Amino acid sequence: DAGVTQSPTHLIKTRGQQVTLRCSPKSGHDTVSWYQQALGQGPQFIFQYYEEEERQRGNFPDRFSGHQFPNYSSELNVNALLLGDSALYLCASSFSVAGGADTQYFGPGTRLTVL
Amino acid sequence: AQSVTQLDSHVSVSEGTPVLLRCNYSSSYSPSLFWYVQHPNKGLQLLLKYTSAATLVKGINGFEAEFKKSETSFHLTKPSAHMSDAAEYFCVVSDSGNTGKLIFGQGTTLQVKP
Predict the structure, then answer these.
(1) Which of A95, A104, B17, B104 is most buried, judging by how many CB atoms fall within 10 Å of its CB?
(2) How many CB atoms sit inside 10 A of residue B39's CB?
(3) Residue A34 touches partner B, C-beta closer than 8 Å
(4) B99 and A41: CB-CB below 8 Å?
(5) How far apart are CA B48 and CA B50, in angstroms?
């Protein structure tokens, strides 16, 4: 049973460019959450997707957007990259249950470097 | 609003000695609490979770944590440290509502000396 997978592993971009990160959830999971982890910090919640819609959003600008596909996989898009967007981007999948979400399982992350 | 505070940014122990990583939480309701571990250049691995069942929670690799409501604490312990335990540890609380978004502490770096 494959766990959460993310691609690419590493990415280098320059300021002003756009980037797309991809995530495939654990088998049987229907919910994908994205987190940003800056160096030396704990992860920060970006947003969560369920049933192909953004269900909740953290304190991130509109430059950060996402998408969920019918097979539950997800993309994170970041436009107009800033140096401060350099971070490890983590995807977590879970199964939504009545009244709440189940435990989140994380992928290995995508390391984004903005020059 | 929910939050967690990890009381030590860095903990150093000798191999074979006990490990204690401290975490206090703030929540207006009965929270779900987690400990995740992150090895260098790796993703996050779930160690254990508390969801209002038993207050003493056993996790993987010999770790356990005790939920103490009166002290608003959820400290992580292990009787005997192993070299492979060296990593970054995060105490996490799940937000209220149906998304269960995770709110992370700042992390504690565990160093294990031979």
Answers:
(1) A104
(2) 13
(3) no
(4) no
(5) 7
The rounded distance, in Å, linking the Cα atoms of B75 and B34 is 10
Cβ contacts of A29 within 8 Å, gap of 6 or more: A72, A93, A94, A95, A105
**Per-residue pLDDT for chain A (115 aa), expressed as one digit of tens each?**
679 999 999 999 999 999 999 999 999 899 999 999 999 899 999 999 998 999 889 999 999 999 999 999 999 999 999 999 999 999 999 988 765 567 899 999 999 999 9
Only one residue has tokens 């435990």, namely A103
- Pairing assessment for the beta strands B102-104 and B87-94 based on DSSP bridges: antiparallel
Chain B residue set in contact with A, beta carbons under 8 Å = 34, 36, 42-46, 49, 90, 94, 97-107
Cβ separation of A99 and B98 shorter than 8 Å? yes
